[in-house]
Amino acid sequence: MAPDWNKLGASFADSSSVLIVDVDCTADGERTCQRMGVRGYPTIKYFMSGDKKGKDYQQGRDFNSLKQFADRTLNKPTCDAASKKGCAKNEVAFIEKHEGKSADEIKAVFAEKADELKAVKAERAEAERAMKAKTKEWKKKEAALNKAQNILKQMEKNAA
């Protein structure tokens, strides 16, 4: 697999959105591999923007399969704040809103966005917990209603 992996790395060498790397889990990369949950070799993981854990790649191990997956899944244009290349309209508007600010002002906006993100994640987690509790409650009600229907069917049969 190494020749195809190296060929894949070469094909994305100039990419701003795809980075092909390998880690030797038997040497200096052992801690990284443990942290990422690598148990067998070769293991291929891919990471989308903002994903710290990564996902296991479960498709073909030949160059064409790897390349197709990378092109389809990973090779997405990224927004370059300096040139605005690859940026969506809302990203350009955001950049223009904050252009000309000092490094300290940008750090303050970054901290504000980090706090907002933390709040949204907490709100989402709470909503997911509430939904899980409601789902459990609904399943309990469904089970009770199914049991009631079964009992009523038996009683109807006996009454006839």
CATH class of the domain at 1-74: Alpha Beta
CATH architecture of the domain at 1-74: 3-Layer(aba) Sandwich
Oligomer: single chain
What do we call the CATH homologous superfamily of the domain at 1-74?
Answer: Glutaredoxin
Lateral strand order in the biggest sheet: 1-2
GO biological process, one term: protein folding
Protein name: Thioredoxin domain-containing protein
Domain Thioredoxin: 1-71
Organism: Micromonas pusilla (Picoplanktonic green alga)
Offer a concise description of the structure.
The protein has 160 residues and is an all-alpha fold. It is 59% helix and 2% strand.
Describe the fold and architecture.
The chain is mostly helical. It has a domain at 1-74: Glutaredoxin, CATH 3.40.30. It is 59% helix and 2% strand. It has five helices and two strands. A two-stranded antiparallel ribbon has the order 1-2. A hairpin with an 8-residue loop joins strand 1 and strand 2. The longest helix has 57 residues, at 103-159. It is extended. The termini are far apart. The mean pLDDT is 92. GO terms for molecular function: protein disulfide isomerase activity. InterPro entries: PDI (IPR051063), Thioredoxin-like_sf (IPR036249), Thioredoxin_domain (IPR013766).
Main attributes of the structure:
160 residues; mainly alpha; two-stranded antiparallel ribbon; extended
Topology:
Elements: H1 2-11, H2 30-35, E1 45-46, E2 55-56, H3 63-74, H4 89-98, H5 103-159
Antiparallel strand pairs: 1-2
